[in-house]
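Project standup — Tuesday

K.O.: blocked on the structure for the chain from last sprint. Re-posting the sequence here as requested.
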Amino acid sequence: MDELGAILDTCSRLGGANQNAVLATVVHVTGSAYRRPGARMLVLPDGCRVGSVSGGCLEGEIARKAWWFTESGAPVIRAYDTTSYDDAVWEFGLGCNGVVHVMLERVNTPASRELIEFLKTQRSRREPAVVATVIRAGKCCSSRPGDRLLLGQDGIRGGSLAGSAMELEIFASACEVECQQKSRLIHLDDADVFLEWVGPPLPLLVFGAGQDTVPFVAIAGQMGWRVTIADCRPAYAKPERFPDAELVALMHVADPLRDLEIGPGTAVVLMTHSYPLDLILLPRILERQPLYLGILGPSTRAGRLFGDLGIRRPSYVHAPVGLDIGGDNPAAVGLAIAAEVQAAVHSRLGGMLKRRKSAIHTPCTEVGSSTFAIYDSTRPAFCENTVSVGF
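H.V.: unblocked you, prediction finished:
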């Protein structure tokens, strides 16, 4: 289960409106940081945490003070500056050379409950969403930090900004975010709004339930992908062998894709170890035009497959499947395949980071201009550097 799924699942088990928690969300980053805008962490009353907002640098500090910061019941924004090289910074494991802005909110408020239910609904529908959140509001602005507009594929679905004067401006930018599937920060006349694109988990369909599939599916489960496994052998297609899979299906030989979903956003991996079966599966899969198709085996085998079928190989086909990381055991094979799927769906080459010439993370797009200042509702005025790393 992915981070957001785990947080939503935990919120569902809190036991009603009287059971509270604090949701921490990264809403803006300047400079370098381990996590990007949209990263979340849920802080429970007993101190337990679900998710993360950094590489371990900020979680403890946020958990210790989250309840105090949100005592008024209103969302607050805190800025954590990790750019200093002072001893105090390194003592707390910081020094990431960035400023991380985190919104803290109690989950038992009407606004937070609406957000959680909205995201749960979008997940159940397997549809993306755009969450627009005010993170800075000027003195002349009628909105406050934490005010939201919730948008699904069918339009506006809720939020306190629905019907407000800001709705039209936000909606136009939100449509672009949905189309590009990329979050951004927009600067309006007297407010800054974080537009977060929240996509559904990656659907992954694996043909073949052999021993080498087991570690691959375990990694895929840790990545939060929605995994389906199909195999025509009853002894292999057993759910207990793949606890991280959402569905383990016994494939129909006459109609192998029956009841199996393959869409333009699906990643597919052929691991059948059966050339005749792959000859049957491959053209049917290509008809569905998946996002990614990996084929296990040497390049000569893949070349023979396409040659025997008399069809051209599309650019989204990866054969042999996997990154060149060395190792020939099932765990190494599974790791290599999972790494390539992750790289391919995010349009990365999968090379060593030390050889990358550009930044690891693409900066969040900003539209408009603003003197970025975080409003903290526990203070009477705007303030820069809300939280010092000297704690």
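K.O.: great, moving the ticket to review. Confidence is low (pLDDT under 50) at residues 87-94, 371-391. The chain has two domains: 3-197+369-383, 203-345.
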